[in-house]
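Human:
If only I could read backbone structure tokens as easily as an amino acid sequence. I am handing you a single protein, as its sequence and its fold in token form. I hope you can help me see how the letters and the tokens relate. Thank you; the sequence and its tokens follow:
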Amino acid sequence: MFIALVCISFQPVSASDSLNQTNVSVVSDLNQTVGKNIIGLVDTNRLEIGNKPVFDIIWSPDGSHMLINVVVNVYPKGKPDLYGCVGALYAANTDGSGIKRIAWAEFISSRGGITINPPLWSQSGDYFAYVEWVKGRMYKIKSVNLYVMSKDLNLIQKVELDPKVTGLESDLANFKWSPIENKFAALVPGEIVIYDLDEKNELNFSISGDDAEITDMEWSPDGKKIVFLKNGQDIIALDIENGEFNQIYSAKYVGMYGEKWSTDSKRLIFYEIKTSEKVDDVSYDIYVADEDLEKPVKITTFTSGSSRVIQWYPDSEKILVKKCSDDSCALYSLSITGKMKKLIKKDKIIDGMVAPNGYISATSLNPNSTTPPYIRTYDLFLLNESDRLTIENVPYYTWEGADVLFATDYKLSVLNTSTHDTWDIPLPSKNFDRLSLDPSGRFVAVDNIIFEIHEQGTHTQISAKNYTNSTASETAIIKKDMDEHSKIDTTEDATANTSELPGFPAIIALMGVLIVFVCIHMEK
């Protein structure tokens, strides 16, 4: 695919001599380790395998560990119309060595079973948590259990969550890590419980009302408050230090978007739904609650359910919003005083985010995605007050500071939006479903392959024939029944290569996981 970099301000986009050129080499093929292990968990006497294993890599915040969530679709023999899956969770070093299985489960829609959520790391990387859903026939939820483990794989806490307050399995409503400390909040029947893993204590806050429905629970960025929606009518903030519940707003129909708190933790944004006797006459009044003001203030109204609040700006004075009509969508900068400024408009679906350096990144689906080879790609627009860049045919991208990393044919590219310098990391595959870079910038996962990134000239550039050169060990098993995580078998295959890989001076400190547009894994 042709890649176009267009700078509206006519500043050139060029490679800088000061940027290190890089290549990659294979250090692990997860298909040869966890892939074989999960296939071995399928009872082939009664189940057929419907697809190859799908791998989700979840790096620890410091890039020292990774968790691997793997799912393979299955169905009862002779009944391909019935959905089923076998899933497993593994821990490993970032080069794919030292693999240990933490848990596994099986679910068949006709009879029930257990599914496992992709895990979430605490902000420190000292702990991670995952959820097991116990389900009956046709997905009926029976119980939801939260397991919190240390990075050295000791079980720290098991919590039975409120099964009535679950939300999506991809975005749990009843469990949230604190953004600044080793604490987490969990919704159990009738209570919000704050668990402090460092102090080894917990705080319990009772919620009034029988069978109250709690949704949209979210910590404030400073870790001092938690907001939630009660019964779809009351927006309530919990002051953790004082132990007080404060009602922010109440109406017949209210709600909150995914983005709630301003970055300084002083403001909340939410909406009230208004209806009339006319068919399809629905509006969404957008409010901001400010801790310095007595009452929330309405700042604008959306007339379409496709319109939404996307994200607060770093200055906590503006919000990125999307407004849609019947034939187009546009991104706007909305101030807390209600002033609206259009940023970009397209006649097709558009989305966006606010980058840490103040740029707005917007994505619009490329219509060529509907033609062979049917790879879903997007046009990426990078905007600020004086600059506008367009990058075509991008399936994935992420931000770190002034750099944006994006994937295209056979390579990853890094663009510095301040200097417009770029450099590339070649990849051996054109078509891939999932891609993520570890926070240290040393390793990259492309589907089931873990690559190490090297400076140009230190290693031979990768080719497809190198796929067999995996240094990962065989899978070691954590012996565990559904209520026991403490028995760990750390015995590894005698042929495992456990030596340290060569050192690598950091090229970039790209944090977090790439936004994957094509295949976002959501267990059903």
About this structure: Residues 34-41 form the longest helix (8 residues). Residues 1-19, 457-473, 478-524 have pLDDT under 50 and may be disordered. Residues 31 and 448 are 6 Å apart (CA to CA). The chain has one helix and 44 strands.
